[in-house]
Input
Amino acid sequence: MIHKAKPCFQAVKAGFHTQLSGHTHGGQSFPWNIILTMVQPYVRGLNIYEGMNIYIHSGTVFWGPPNRFMFNSEIAEIIFKFF
Output
């Protein structure tokens, strides 16, 4: 688990299979949604980079002004199954 998604490139090289990140607030509102995509490779949801699962949690509240325009708060349940 790491705060931001960007280290996923180093994590996959190190042999990790899953990365849990968060706190992007999903971009929260304009113009942050555009700026965030310029500095973070992934903003929300489940993504896959070179076979590694990367889940980005968009948060449960907001940052700055009290709004979340077009991006819902989320509570995620992640279940790992080992075979």
In short: The helical segments are 8-13, 32-39. The mean pLDDT is 79. DSSP finds two helices and three strands in the chain. The first strand starts at residue 18 and ends at 22.
